[in-house]
Specification:
Layout (H helix, E strand, L loop, with lengths): L6 H9 L3 H4 L10 H12 L2 H28 L10 H33 L3 H5 L5 H6 L1 H26 L5 E2 L4 E2 L5 H10 L1 H7 L24 E2 L5 E2 L12 H19 L8 H29 L3 H20 L6 H5 L2 H7 L26 H25 L3
Antiparallel strand pairs: 1-2, 3-4
Length: 397
């Protein structure tokens, strides 16, 4: 008698999931390390985009500082030191801030639309992977590219601005020692009365008191400091001949006392605290640009228009609405992410939009508390991430 093998056992054996299948998380919305690594590789293959990121975040600051180093080495009396606090504040507060946001947004727009433009979206969907996981994998992948680039460029700026900083302050046309107390600054002015009188700005009378009219008064010495640091007295004038040394010293001390408030805010090079805060602030700005660009490109299904919109937002709309208060739209203005990040800017930097800590007389930023600024930043990141993920989950393959 021939026995027939039971099909139930074999069927059950086939239907029973293996240990590998039990660990299959293709339906999970959490991206795996392999998915993130694949996204990184896809973005890195776009050589033109990577070159643009390197040029803007690393190349422009490095070339600018290299030129300053060469010029100072060739003609130190004509060209000032390559580094210093002023160079740092201008590079970090404007160049790296504005252009870093734009290239980060461009990277985000590319990451959010590359699968559609290259016709790969359908192939990714049929693998069974969660569409949310496919979208969320782009966030750490893009940040893994843009964050190190910003860090490298900023490190170069910090290194040059600290190690190639001037040894004396140039305020505001006079070389003065840095970090002096009020007594020390007055002592320096008393030792160099002619330099203080001819080079420093003042609105005091010879007794050291304000004249009440708001006009600049002098001790009848029409002098100035030339580019080489020499005191120049126009021909045909008596200069300091008819002014005693005691009067010169008294007036110089009064000038130093008046100018000390502005002098005390100047530094030879940025402090460690300022550099750390500025670095984190620039990374935050780049991360916001990438995430918003990613969501916008995913929502629109293309790259060109989102990139243009992000540039308009950063270059045109944000400066306009950050400096001009529109009473009926002030809450809308406070909802701009650019204004929010400007309010989170470290205190030692000039505002990128001409307000806040900028030069005297510059328009102030639209008022906004730090709490509101933080909420606006979080809101932009969450909303644009949700919109981009929703659009990807609903898009036809």
């Amino acid at each position: 008698m021939t026995s027939v093998p039971s099909t139930a056992t074999s069927t059950a054996r086939v239907a029973t999931p293996s240990s590998g299948d039990a660990r299959d998380h293709r339906g999970s919305w959490i991206p795996t390390g392999g998915m993130i690594a694949t996204r990184i590789m896809e973005l890195r293959k776009r050589r033109g985009l990577m070159a643009a990121l390197i040029v803007v975040n690393i190349g422009i600051p490095a070339i600018f500082l290299l030129i300053r180093l060469i010029m100072h080495a060739a003609a130190p009396k004509t060209y000032g030191p390559a580094g210093g606090y002023d160079v740092f504040s201008q590079l970090a507060g404007f160049v790296m801030y504005v252009f870093g946001f734009i290239v980060a947004a461009t990277l985000g727009c590319t990451a959010g639309s590359v699968d559609l433009t290259e016709g790969m979206f359908r192939h990714l969907v049929i693998t069974g992977r969660s569409r949310l996981a496919l979208y969320f994998a782009r966030i750490p992948a893009g940040l893994a590219i843009i964050v190190p680039m910003v860090a490298v460029g900023f490190t170069i700026v910090c290194a040059v601005c600290v190690f190639a900083a001037p040894t004396k302050l140039y305020y505001p046309g006079v070389n003065v020692p840095a970090g002096q107390s009020l007594a020390g600054f007055e002592s320096w002015a008393a030792q160099h009365p002619k330099v203080a009188i001819c080079g420093l700005p003042y609105r005091v009378n010879p007794n050291g008191n304000g004249n009440g009219s708001g006009k600049k008064t002098t001790i009848n010495v029409p002098c100035f400091i030339d580019q080489r640091g020499n005191i120049v007295v126009p021909p045909g004038t008596s200069g300091f001949k008819n002014i005693s040394s005691a009067t010169q010293k008294s007036f110089a001390i009064a000038i130093a006392k008046e100018d000390y408030s502005a002098y005390s805010k100047l530094f030879l090079y940025p402090s460690n605290k300022l550099m750390i805060q500025t670095g984190l602030w620039l990374e935050l700005e780049a991360a916001i640009g990438f995430i918003v660009g990613l969501g916008l490109a995913s929502l629109m299904g293309q790259r060109t228009v989102p990139v243009v919109l992000m540039i308009v937002l950063e270059i045109v709309l944000t400066p306009i609405f950050s400096r001009n208060v529109i009473n009926h739209l002030i809450n809308v203005q406070r909802g701009l992410v650019g204004l929010a990040t400007a309010h989170l800017e470290p205190g030692g930097l000039p505002s990128a939009f001409g307000g806040g800590n900028g030069p005297a007389g510059a328009p102030q930023l639209v008022p906004e508390s730090t709490t509101v600024a933080v909420c606006v930043v979080i809101g932009w990141v969450v909303v644009w991430t949700a919109l981009g993920a929703w659009r990807m989950s609903k898009r036809d393959a």
